[in-house]
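2 proteins. here.
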Amino acid sequence: MKRILNLVTIAIVSMMMTGCLAGRYMCNYALLPEEHGNDFTGDREKTEGRYPGIMEWYDQLHGNGVFRDTTLIGEGGYKLHGVYAPASNPSKAQGTAVVVHGYTDNHICFLNLVRMYRDELNYNVMVPDLHYHGESEGRAVQMGWLDRLDVKKFAVMAHDIWNDDFMVVHGVSMGGATTMMLSGDDDLPPYIRAFVDDCGYSSVWDQFAHNLKDSFHLPPFPVLNSASIVCKHRYGWGFKEASSVKQLAKCDKPMLFIHGEKDDFVPTEHVYKNYEAKTKGYKELWIAPGSEHAMAYKDHPEEYTEHVRAFLAKAKTL
């Protein structure tokens, strides 16, 4: 019996040590990717490939001073970069849109939505590079949780520029999760009046559990538990804490949820969990037919734009 107990103890200790090492590896793998929106040549080519002519559109406006660069000091004292531009018809601007990019992206990657808001919907636009992404400083990817606080600061900056009383925050993928996580904060400025989530995850835990199973064929325990502890120690937050669902339960402002029907990176089931979690205030849900991850606009640009347009019109009446 003593021998058996010793073997069990050794097995448990070995499993815990293995889990700890694997957790540290996963934390580094997920939050310290080699490319994190810093490959601007590649991102420009990818964006232009999806939306021909869009880089010429942006470069011309940026070169003429319509798009301007800006910086602010974000959480932890890091300098964060963003770009902003007035609506195409400034005297009749409909409000301000803060467009939030996804994991390992930057302000270049969703210029399609920036152009939609500025040119088609006539909104002023603010487009941040999130912590550790693009031209912004930072320690590691924050998966939306601490990013929500930085996006709030960019929203305040945008309001200082244009003084609009209607602002929408629109994010894609990790940016969608950032948007949902922001929506539940108690101290939101009153001019942030609507949110659009495009394919955001229900929580960092749920997303990493899916990635762990999909890429490594491993269950969450003990790797994810260990990785979350490492993240908490290094960056001050844990994977379960960073929850869109928990924040949505506190959100009473209008929100449009968008998700691709064929999304297998952030599985479509996430959007149903998110939608059901928001029990206060107005909400809409659109599942983009046949679309994979973050491809709803690419596949259905006119329908996507009209869903957003109609939603914003409704949100302004509430």
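next one coming up
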Amino acid sequence: MLNNQLFKHIDNSALVVFRIIFGLLCFLESVGAIFTGWVKRTLVEPDFTFNFIGFEFLQPLPGNGMYYYYAIMGIFGLLIIVGYKYRFSTLAFAIMWSTTYLMQKSSYNNHYYLLMLLSGIMAFLPAHKYASVDAKLNPEIKSYSMPQWCRWVIILQLFIVYSYASIAKLYPDWLDTSVIELMMKGKKDYVFVGDFLQQKWLHYVLAYGGILFDGLIVPLLLLKRTRKYAFVVSIFFHLFNSFIFQIGIFPYMSLAFSLFFFQPEVIQKLFLKKKPFYSETQVLVSPLKIPLIIIFSVYFIIQIGLPLRHYFIEDNVLWTEEGHRLSWRMMLRVKSGQTSYYVENKDTGKRTYINLNKYLSAKQKNSASTKPDVMWQFAQRLKQDFKSKGQDVAVYINSKVSINGKPYKTLINPDINIANVEWEVFKHSHWILPSIKE
């Protein structure tokens, strides 16, 4: 029964329109990163980047290489829009985007991660079977339908994203609105709305509205009775986030997902009036049926499991950030730090305090002051830097960190040579001192 539902063919208008919007967003994200200066600040100006641990071999191209790199990604975005060499273009974008995602984490964002996952998924989907150059050049591939699993893969991915985002907000500092209040203080100079954003009642609306929206939006969009109302709320929610928080393409990508919730005939009539509507009820068995079921089953098991891992690691993830990444835990807290590093020559005992400006950009300094994994990576880099000068050194960190405006507390054990410890992937690193218990 489940197999019949997954492989039953339905009209593919939603997927075709989504491909065009998705390609446009890929193009805008890539080219926008160049023209807003993001590539320059994040990948060109720094001497090095803090990679995801295990991917240290990924470093930015020298000179103007990263500008060309992002321009090429933008071209692949255009090719996705028109559907030319679609699978190659989508897969190439997915690989290039994933590479830059893993290459740096000073600018960590949910939508960067989602775009990496989505571009990989889109390479599997038959989104080029209509309104594409591929279909024009090769009419044999032209189709007005798609297997229903194409729709449910997108919906399930979206459900995972929103559900974990909602659950992550269920902690005291969010529920008493102190997090929202701190976030809004940084927006007080916004023209027209700055004072409005400081209203306490609004903080409660945003805090609890965020929990309810993330937790309910997918079920409400699935129900015909509530779909239109949920979509209107979704428009307001995402446009508000786009204006207030300036989080790139994520709000618009989220709105584009709504295509998969409305009836196919509605999407066809609105966007593809010349396209014949597919109304048959065929169940076409693909020779790739079993491989597809296995691949996506493994994929979604991983997607469901990754955000749970911090529950099995000692201490609070808000403090240690162990299990924070790849878990849809964004915009949940305000974190600040006052951190200094010094190296001690093991032969002479001489101590040298590190001028962070010599090594790090402003954004990197913030990460190296508040995030234990980045601190550990920077300690390894300092050790190697001094080793290249003929010195064997130990690296010590004095770090005071505040979360959500609370008093500063020591994050890293100042007596441990951080350059001499191994990074723990699946368990707590005990050189990270305990958090303040609520």
